Amino acid sequence: MADPQKRHPQNVPGPWFVDTSCISCDTCTDVSPEIFGRDAARKAFVREHRVDDVSLFEFALESCPVEAVGREE
Ligand code: SF4
Fold it and tell me: Does the N-terminal or the C-terminal CB of the chain have fewer CB atoms within 10 Å?
């Protein structure tokens, strides 16, 4: 489960986030580059929350191999 205490510092404010355990597999950033950005080390972070299709976030949460994508209620 993604750890909100370890949010990547470049996440924009909002419920969805990527934590620092990202291993740069590129899954979320390749599927939804409008939502997930890459830092200089190719680690992912959420750069856009204004997306109508929540399934893109849910896909990333379910497909991340290290469970680095999460949502705070
Ligand atoms: S799917 Fe997970 S490990 Fe892969 S780039 Fe996204 S956050 Fe990182």
Answer: C
